[in-house]
Specification:
about 80 residues
Length: about 80
């Protein structure tokens, strides 16, 4: 049995359907943009850096991979929020 022209009998092309769905989905996403909001408290904290030299030392330690986080101190600071 030979099948030469599938469009005559309404042949199924799943690729065509998936391409159409992807195009419709991309049109929906084009209208939306990501947005970041920084709270006033965070802005105040950022502007209240008292020791810029220490901040630069911390940045350099993080960049070089020598900054060590003490898990015990982190746990002590988080504990009041978890009670």
């Amino acid at each position: 049995m030979k099948i030469n022209d599938t469009s005559r009998i309404g042949g199924v092309n799943p690729y065509r359907k998936s391409v159409g769905n992807a195009a419709a989905a991309s049109e929906v996403k084009k209208g939306k943009k990501d947005e970041v909001q920084i709270s006033n408290e965070a802005k105040e904290m950022a502007s209240s850096v008292r020791n810029p030299e220490k901040l630069e030392q911390l940045k350099q330690a993080v960049a070089t991979g020598t900054y060590h986080v003490d898990g015990q101190k982190v746990a002590e600071k988080l504990w009041p929020f978890l009670k």
